[in-house]
Amino acid sequence: MDRRKFLQLMGLVSGTTLLSSCGSERNQKELISYLVPPEDGVRPGTAAWRVSTCSECPAHCGITVRLREGRAVKLEGNPDHPVSQGALCMRGQAALWRLYHPQRLRTPLLRTGNGYRPIGWDEAMKRIAEAMTASAEKSRTNMLLTGSTSGSLAALQERFADTCRIDRLPEFEFFNHAALRQAYQLLYGRPRLPRFGIEDADLLVTVGADLLETFISPVGYAHQLSVARREKGLQWSHIEPHLSLTGANADRRLTIRPGSEATLLLWLLQTLAKRRRYARRLPQQILDALPKISLARAMDNSGLPGSSLTELARSLEKARHPLLITGGVATAQLAGGQVALLGCLLQWVLTVPWQGLDFDRAENFGRAGDLRDLQQLNLSLQNDEVGVLIISRTDPVRHSPQKWRLDENLRRARLSIAMTDLHTATSRTTDLILPLTQNFERWDDVEPRIGIHSLIQPAMAPLHNTRSEGDILLELQQRLTGRSEAATYEKYLQQRWKKLFSASQLRAFINKGFVTKGSPRTTISLRTKPTVAALRRIAPSEPLPAPATVITGSIRSFDGRSAVLPLLGEIPDPLTTVTHGNWVTLSPRLASQYGVKDGEELRLTKTDFAVAQPARLQPGLPDGIFGLPIDSLTSGPPGIDPATGEALRVIGGIKAHPTGKHFALPILSGSPSQKGRGIIPKPIHRKGKHHAEHRSLYPEPAYRQYRWAMAIDLKRCIGCAACVASCYVENSVPVVGREEHLKGREMSWLRIEPFYDDQGRASFIPMLCQHCDYAPCEPVCPVYAAYHNPEGLNVQVYNRCVGTRYCSNNCPYKVRRFNWWQHKWAPPLEKMHNPDLAPRSKGMMEKCTFCIQRIRTAHETAGKEDRLIRDGEVIPACAQSCPTDAITFGNLLDPQSAVARLIKTPRTYRVFEGLGTEPAVYYLRPD
Amino acid sequence: MNNDISAPQVETDVLTAMRRPGPAWLTGLGLAGLLFAGGLALWAYQIMHGMGVAGITHPVGWGVYITDFVFWVGIAHSGTLISAVLFIFRARFRTSFNRAAEAMTIFALMVAGLFPLIHLGRVWRFYYLFPYPNQRQLWVNFRSPLIWDVFAVSTYFLVSLVFFYVGLMPDLAIAARHRSGRAGKLYRILSLGWTGNLRQWRHYGRLYMFLAAFATPLVASVHSIVSWDFAVSIIPGWHTTIFAPYFVAGAIFSGTAMVLTLVIPMRRVLNLQEHIPIDHIEAIAKILLLTSLIVGFSYVIEHGMAFYGENLFEMEQFRFRALGHYSLLFWIMIMCNAVLPLLLFIRRLRRSLAFLFVLSLLVNVGMWLERFVIVVCSLARDFDPYNWGNYLPSPVECGITLGSFGLFFAAFLVFVKTLPVLSITELKER
Question: Min CA distance, A821 vs chain B (Å)?
C-alpha cells in the first residue's frame, strides 16, 4: 500500500465514522432498537415478577418468581400469601434447581429391558390408551395414584376417573398425618387437619409435631410462632424422645422416653379434668371412660420428673390461650392412634374454647390416604388385578416397607406409568415414564387450605418436551372416550376459574396470586359415642425398650423428595452441620459406649429392619436414641402401624454395632461448642469490656447518606437455613459437591452456625460478611480488591483480585470464600444465574455483598425519582426468605429506619466486639 | 591460620575446582534439574486447573507455599550476614564462606520470589502487585504487608546481587586470565575491565565497604517485613510484636545451617580443605548455637505470653500447637531447633564435620516446620470455632516444594563450576 492509498482509506474510514456518529437526540435514545419487539415481560436488563405457588411440598407457600430475559432466576415469598406470609424455606428456594436440573426427564421414556427408549408423546399416549382399553376387557382395574393434589387438577382427576372408569386411589403422601385425621374424624366427624391458631396462642405445647421441619406447613408455622412470641409472649414447650430442630427452638424441651407420649397425655388429661372448667367440657361418659393413671406411673413411663409434669399441667391451666399439637413422630408409632386421640381430646378441652382450631380453613389433605391404602394396592398388584397403573408425583416404592416388594410387584401391572420430573425410585421400576412440566412452565392452581385458591402461572416456556399432568389426562380422556373436558388444560382452567371466581376475584387471583373465599366459621361438637368407644380401647402402654431409633423428617429433603436437588445437599443440616451424605446421630455418651466416632459406620438392626450409616455425634440428643434422618433410610420405613396406616418412625429394642468401616462425613462445623467465646452471648458476656477504644492513624470512615447495616434477632432465628438457600440462588453461589466439602471448601456466603451448651441446648447464629467499619480484610489486600465503599459496604472487586487469600486469613469471621476452581454449571443450570451479578472465575475471593445488586437497583429507582432510598426498599435475599423476620436490613444513618431503631435495644451486641472491627451486622442476643 | 599457603596455590586450587565437571556433578545437576522441571510442570497444572489442586482450604488459606517462601527467604539471610556484617566486623573466617553464602542468597531469593507467585490464585495478574502507572488509575495498597514484601524482597535481591557481583569482579579477571577462548572472553567482559591497578583497588575497597554498610540493615529489615506479613494480621498466633526479632534470628539460624549443608560437602568434593579450615567452620557453628538459643527463647516467650495473657484465642492457639492436630510437627520442630543445637556447647561436636552436617540438615527441617506450624496452626484455629479445620498438603504442593529445592541445588551446582567458589583475592590477602 502506498502513502496515497493509505491516506485515502484513512479519510474514508474516519469520514464514515464521523458521519455515522452524527444524529439527532431522538435517535440516540434507544441505543439498540428492537428488531423483533419484545414479548410481554421480556425486556433485556429489567426484571419481571410473577406470582405463583411453590409445589415442593403439600404446604404450597406463595411465591413470586423473578424473571430475567425470559427465564426464572429467583424465587421469593409472596408477602401477602396467607400460607407463608412472604417467607420461603430452603426447599422452596431450591425449587429452581428442579426446574433447571440437568437430569430432568426431557421426553417420554419406554423401558426396554434394562434401558430406556425415548418415544414420542403420541406413541406414549397410544400405548396407555390401548393398555387401558385392553385391561378393562380383561377385568383388570386401571388405577390412578397421585401425590397430594388439590384445586383444578383434583377436579379434573375426578372427572377423568369417572369418565374413563379408572380407579382413583387415595392420594399418597409419606407424611400423611393419618393418625391425626382419624382422630379428628372420630372426635368431630371431620377427617381434616385444622388450621392451628398459633399466632393467637400464649402457650404452645407440641408433642412430637416438628412444626419447623416437616409438619404440614412449616414455613407458615414458623411465621405464626414468631408473631406469637413477639406479640403474645408465647411460651413453647416441646415434648419428644429425640432432638429435632423444632425441639431445639422451643423455650423448653422435655425429653421423654420413646413411646410414652400416650401415658403423658393421658395423665395431663386426667389432671386437667379434675378442674371444673375443664371437666365441664367433657361429657361424663368420656370422663368415666378415661383410663386412670397415677403420677408415679406417668413419671416412670415418660422418664420425666414429677415437677416437670405438674409444672406442665399448671402452665396449661394458667394459660389463657393454650394450644396443644400432637403429630410427627409421636403419632407415627405403634401407639400413634392413642397419642393422636388423646392429643386431640386435650385440644378440645384446652384450645377449642378459644377457637384455636379452624376446620373451615383446614389444611387440604382431603383425599390423602395412608400406607394401608398402599398395602391394598400392593395386594391387588400381587393378585394381578391391576391393569394400567398411573403413578403421578409420588414415590410409593421409596416409602413402602421393603418386605412388601412393591418395586417387583409393580411389574405385575399390565402397564405401570410414572409421571414425574426427575427420576424417583418408583419411576425406575415402571414401564413408562412421562416427564411432567415444572411449576414454572405451566398454568395451574392449588388449594392448600380450604377456601384458599393459589395460582400457579408459567414464568417461561417449557425447557423440554414435557407436558402437564392436566394435559396428559385430557388427552387420555379424549383418546378413551372420544371427548374431553377441554382441548387443553389451560382452557380447562379458564373455564373452571370463570365458574369459580367473580371478575374481580379473577383479577386478584392473577395479580396477587391467590383468592381467599370466605365461608362462615362452623362450630364443631364432640361426638361422644365413638369417642367413648375409642377411649375404652386405650391401654396405657409401656415405653419402648431402649435403645430406640427415631426416623426424622428432614428440613432439607422433606420426606426425601428434595434430596435430589444438589443445592440442598450443599446446605448443612442445621443440627449436625453434615452436608452431602447420610448418617445416624447418637449422643456423645452413647457413642463412647459403642466406641464410635464421627463417620464410623454403625449398623442398626431389629428383626427384619437393618440399616448401616456412619455415626454423627449429636450433643443434646438423649442417650439411648439413634436419630435416623429419613434420607438415611435406604429401604423404606421399617413397618406400618396397622391401626392408623402411618409408617413406624419410632422403634425400640434396636441392636447396634459398629461395622468398623469409616466414611468421610462432610461436617462443616469445626466445633459444637463456642468455647466460651461469646459468639452468641449469654448476659454475662456483656459485662466484661474487651479492649481499649478504637484508635487509628487513618481517618475515620465518614458516610454521607447511607451506612448499610443489618440487625439479626437471634431470639427469632430458628436455624432453618432458608436464608442460606436464598443467598445461594440470588448470588449464583457455586455448588461444589461432597469432595470439596470434605476439604472444607464450601462456598456459602451465609451460613447458620449451631452452638451447643453443656446441657445440649442449641442456639443458632447466621454468619455472613459483617461489613466492618474497620474490616481486617481491607488493609491486607495488596491491590485494593477488598475496599470500603462510601456506603459502608465492604466491597470485593472481583476483577482486581489476584487471589492472595490474605483477606480470608485475616477475617475473624471467616466469611470469605475462595474460588478454588473454575466452577462448572451443568446445562441448563447456567440459565439460573443472576445476570445482575459479576461472574467469578477461578482464583478469586468472593463473599456476601449485602446483595449490592439490589442496593444498586434501588439507587437507580431512587435516583430517577430524585429521592433517597426508603427504609425497606432494599431487602437482601436472606431477609426476604426468613420465615420469622429475624433479619432487618437498612440504612443506619436514617434514625427512623427499622435497623437503626433495632440496634438501640439493650439486647444488641456484635460478634468479637473486642477486636475493634466495628461490624455493621448487629445481633440481638437470644435471652 | 593457613597463612602458609602461597598465593599462586590459592589461585590454582580455587580455579581447579571450576574445571571439568565429573559424573557426580552431572548426575547431581540432572537430578536437580529433573526435580525443577517436575515442579514447573505441577505449577502449570495448578495454573490450568485452579488452586483447588493444592491442599489449602478454608480456613487455612496459606499452606506449604507460604511456608516455602518464608523458608527460602530465611535461607537467603546468612549470605548478607556472612558477607556484609562479618566484613564490617572484620571477622576473618568469613572469607571461607562469603562467596558460597552470597551465591546461596541469590539462589534462595530467586526461589523464594517464585512462591508468592505460585500461591496467587490468579498468577496471570501478578503485575497488579506492582505500582505501575495505568490509565485505570489503579494503585497498590501500601498498607498491605504483602506490598511491603514485594519491595523488601526485591530490594534485598538487588543489593545482594550487586554485592555478589562487585565482590566477584577481581576474581572474574583472574579467571579470565586462566581461561582461553569464549569462556575467557566472557569472564573478561564480566570483570568490567578489571586490571587490578591501585586506583581500581582503592575504588573497589570503598565501594565494597559502602555496599556492606548498605546491606547490613537489610539483614534486619527483610525478615522483619516478612514477619509482618503475619504480625500485622489479627490472627492469634500471628499477631504478636515478637515476630520481627524472632524471625530474623530464625532466618539467620536457618541460613547458617544451609551454609553448612552446602559448604561441608563442597569443601570435600572440591578439595578445598586447606582454604576452609575447621576453625572457621566452628565459628559458623557458634553462630548457629547463638541463634538457636534466641529461637528457643522465642518459643518460650510465645507460649509464656499466651499462658499469662489469658487471651482465650491466644491460649487455645498455643494449646493447639503443642497438643493438637499438628503436635507431632511442633515437637519435631522444638527438637531440631531448640534442643539438638544445644549439643554445640560441646567443642568436640562443634568441630565434627559429620555431626555439623547432620545437624544442619535437621535444623533446615526444623526451621521449615517452624514456618509450617506458624502459618498453618494459626489459621486452623482462629476466632470462630465453627470454622476450625485442618489442612493437609496435596501432592502438587509437595512436588512444587521439591521442585524449588531442585532449582536451588541446580543453580548452586552451576555456580560451583562456573564461578570461583572462594574469594581468591581475599584468600590471597589473608
Answer: 5
For residue A88, give the nearest of A98, A99, A79, A97 by alpha carbon: A79
CATH numbers and ranges of domains, chain A: 109-168+368-449+452-516 (3.40.50.740), 178-363 (3.40.228.10), 548-662 (2.40.40.20), 705-924 (3.30.70.20)
ipTM of the complex: 0.93
> Do the domain assignments include residue B147?
no
- The reply to whether B75 falls in a domain is no
How would DSSP label each residue in A46-70? -EEEEEEE--SSTT--EEEEEEETT
Average pLDDT over residues A601-618: 92
pLDDT computed for residue B14 by the predictor? 75
Report which of residues B177 and A93 the model is more confident about: A93
**CA-CA distance, A525 to A548, in Å (whole number)?**
38
Euclidean distance between CA atoms B80 and A266, whole angstroms = 87
Which residues span the domain enclosing B285?
157-392
From the list A779, A808, A821, which residue is nearest B49 (CB)? A821
Going by C-alpha positions, the residue among B427, B429, B423, B430 that lies closest to residue B173 is B423
The verdict on residue B126 lying in a domain is no
Taking the C-alpha atoms of residue A708 and residue A771, their distance in angstroms, rounded to an integer, is 9
* Residue carrying the nine cell digits 428492537: A34
Q: Please check whether residue A413 is in contact with residue A387, taking contact to mean a CB–CB distance below 8 angstroms.
A: yes
> Which residue reads 468398623 in cell numbers?
A660
> Does the pLDDT value for residue A37 go beyond 90?
no
The answer to whether B89 faces chain A, any CB pair under 8 Å, is: no
B-interface mutation test, from A750, A764, A804, A844, most B Cβ less than 10 A away: A804
B410 touches chain A (CB under 8 A): no
**Cell numbers at residue A87, please?**
417467607
Is A862 in contact with A873 (CB distance < 8 Å)?
yes
Tell which residue, A305, A364, A273, has the closest CA to residue A83: A364
Cell 394381578, located at residue: A384
Q: What b/e sequence results for A42-59 when a residue is b if at least 16 CB atoms lie within 10 Å of its CB, and e otherwise?
A: eeeeebeebbbbbbbbbb
**Residues forming beta bridges with residue A325, ordered by sequence position:** A206
Residue B42: inside a domain, yes or no? no
Instruction: Sort out which chain A residues have CB atoms less than 8 A from B56's CB and list them.
Output: 805
Helix (H) or strand (E) run with residue A183 in it: helix A178-188
Work out how many domains chain B is built from and give that number: 1
pLDDT per position as a tens digit, B273-287: 888 888 889 988 999
| Interior angle at CA A660, CA A659 and CA A665, nearest 5 | 95
pLDDT at A702: 86
pLDDT digits (tens, 9 = 90+) for B86-121: 888 887 777 878 888 899 999 999 999 999 999 999
Predicted local distance difference test score (pLDDT) of residue A635: 81
How many Cα atoms are found within 13 Å in the side-chain-facing hemisphere of A504?
2
- Which phi and psi angles does A211 have, rounded to 5°? -55, -35
Q: How far apart are CA B366 and CA B360, in angstroms?
A: 10
Amino acid of residue B193 = G
Candidates B43, B230, B379, B387, partner chain A, best to mutate (most A CBs within 10 A): B387
Pairwise CB contact (< 8 Å): B234 & A776: yes
How many inter-chain contacts (A to B, CB under 8 Å) are there? 160
List the grid coordinates of A504.
374481580
Compute the CA torsion angle A268, A274, A280, A285 (nearest 10 deg): 80
Average pLDDT over residues B164-181: 88
Cβ–Cβ under 8 Å, residues A344 and A326: yes
Alpha-carbon separation of residue B266 from A208, B25, B34, B421 (angstroms): 78, 11, 21, 9
> The whole model's pTM is what?
0.92
Q: How far is CA A165 from the centre of its chain?
A: 37
